[in-house]
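Troubleshooting log. The previous run stalled partway through. Resubmitting the same two chains, unchanged.
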Amino acid sequence: MSETGILAFGAYIPKRRLQRAAIHAFNGWFAGGLRGLAKGEKAVANWDEDAITMGVEAARDCLTGLDRTIVQRVTLASTTLPFADRLNAGVVKEALALADATGANDAAGSLRAGSSSLMQALDGQATQLVIASDNRKAKPASEAEMNYGDAAGAMLVGQGNVIARYLGGHSLTIDFVDHFRSSGSDFDYAWESRWIRDEGYAAILGKALKNGLGKLGLDGTAIDHAVIAVPVKGVPEQLAKKAGIRPEVCSDPLMAVVGDSGAAHPLVMLTACLEKAKPGEKILLASFGQGADVLVFEATEALTNLPPRWGVSGHLAFRQDDSNYGRYLFHRNLLRLEKGIRAEMDQKQPGTTLFRQRKAVLGLIGGRCTKTGTVQFPKTEINVNPNDRAQGTQEDYPLAERYAKVIAFTADNLTFSPDPPSFYGTIDFEGGGRLVTEFADVCADEIEVGVEMRMVFRIKATDDQRHFTKYFWKAVPVSKGDA
Amino acid sequence: MPRGIKDKVAILGMGCSKFGERWDKDADQLMVEAFDEALVDAGIETSQIDAAWLGVGFDAQNIGPSGIPLSMALRLPNIGVTKVENYCASGTESFRGAVYAVASGACDIALALGVEKLKDTGYGGLPVRSRGTTFDMIGVTGSAPGSFAQIASAYRAKHGVSRDDLKRAIAHVSVKSHANGAKNPKAHLQKAVDIDTVLNAPMIADPLGLYDCCGVSDGAACAIVTTPEIAKALGKQELVTIKALQISASNGWEMQQGGGWDGSYFHTTRIAAAKAYEEAGITKPREQVSLMEVHDCFSITELVTMEDLYISKEGEGWKDVRDGFFDADGSIPCQIDGGLKCFGHPIGASGLRMIYENYLQLLGRAGDRQRQDNPVFALSHNLGGQPVQNVSAVAIVGLHGA
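Second attempt completed without errors. Output:
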């Protein structure tokens, strides 16, 4: 039997990085004690991003260069799933255009959701895509607001040509309530940090590390990379030391540049680690949340052959400085701005049309005429070419991974957008197909006719009356950071 | 080519309400205002009308569905009333219904009326609305100026026109229409503006500023049509007849990459114009068309329309505009009544408002703004939708026998 382990990895970090100093500049009068945290920046999702969209982007990164038909299961782990009852991983499956015969499940309820899903996948037989993504809200002027960042990580797990073989893992489950968020609540409630440090991290996670290493027959000194996803300064090193792991092999918890991305954080940090790990090196992954998970991997030669991808480093380099705390609050629905009458359009989504058009809407799958080769979006009964009214000749033609060029555009200040002006335009895909679509994360002067674009999966609109989120694809300018 | 309708139908009378922010009137009152003028002009009784067509673009915030609102407002004698909607071509579409009814012989006298009460919607600009459940999932819900602004970027790229040159050319379009509207007592906006005001106005949708966008107005316009023979029998001496009436709707071809459309012009306008010229027997439009009312919803739209109507050469419309070719005293005045820009744009009324101005000009009844060079053929043009998916209407009216 072939080895089990990680076949590929990927990450997604939103482009905007909110400066913590900007948060403190606004809230310092009220919460002066947060001054010590007012350093560095945190990744903030745009208004049209959530745990699903970020998860899709991390998964796309992970699946770079791979034939997606190998994916048998997909898991989306998050504490901020947009839907309480609609399979969130099902939306991801459609966006990734995976086969209908793909298993899918959501994992939630703990910051360990990502690492536990990864462990379960590694214990199974299927080729499984494990995605962890979180987009947590925090009250203004809270510690959490300073600490939390938005991100997603993804691991393709299975057997065969693994880039990191799974040496084994250990879990510990104890109902330790360091913080909680009840169903339907927007914000976490946290207990004292000193208690969490001593009784949580030191006692529970410390024990899991010791027992995990013991179970695998490993000495702490054998670990070359300790990915301890505890976003508190100094704690990973202390835990490592106590477990016999050299403190200097602890991975950067990314607090200065991303923030604590919740259930996603272990997978995001693991991605960053795998980007620089060398064949033969042993990687320990540890996460905390009502207990702890400890997993150990060994990088293989296959790691060096993995096609280039964004990963954490690519996304960190692709950044936009953001000091607009007001916009961040508005995008989190924490600041009630007058949206104007144009925001009142009823966004009711009939389930019937979404079902019929799910491949086009969620998967950006167009049509290609088998007779003329004409590519179009969306797929229609009669060919788009009126000179050849071929009927019923179109086969599915995915467009999401294709680059496109702008042929016409505008920046619209009149239409409602949570992030004005609304950039949109007409784009032509490489290899055929044309789309009029919105542009995401665009700065002034970035767009001109001829500019190359790529597609990203985003929120199209939300139905404020019935609370349904509508997703579609938008175009972003191709940048130097693109793989 | 079908036989066409040239000179088969004459305009018996026309009317147009004052356009603007008509806080004082409901839609049915605006309909009466336009109709009263047309009825007097036609010199007939309401009972002589055989059928009617009502053009309205927005219904939910306006008069509601069906032809009943027109029948009720005018107390029509239980004749057939059909409501039509074809975006901004709705007014011309209602005219087509009435004209075709007369041309077919089904009616002796028919009425076309367009109305819109936009100022009751609460919007500055056009209301946002669904375009159907499938479109709403994948289409862009932009504003009307944003939709049309896209043309400017593609036009610049295709013809190598600098951002500044194009911005100045489209500014000239607006300055010209404001100058014309200032002479028109029925126009919504009756104030001239200078080019710096236009250039420095707040940006609505790049590159369109506030003065690049037409007025959102209330108003109604109508036409009563019959055959030339009946018109003469009713005592009309000088007749304005319909020379051509063509409408073209996108079939999706613009969305075919490599099919030929590059985003810089309106494909349907070119088709409707070519068919209209053929129907009217016009072979050299730049020389034969006396004056034009075109769909200047936005300044860039008017500019590219000059090329789509084969008046300006492709890529040179911006130069003709800049050189004053379309000014009130230019070779072919365009929007001599102020256009959508200043007369205002109540969607359902606009097509008929344009024909109304052309009718007045052909009969020498346009007052201070009357062209003195005896116009013969007058063209009106409407455009609705968005550049990749639109409907165009071209109506040419002229002196009977020309």
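Takeaways: Residues 163-181 of chain B form the longest helix (19 residues). Chain B has two domains: 10-125+218-241, 144-214+242-399.
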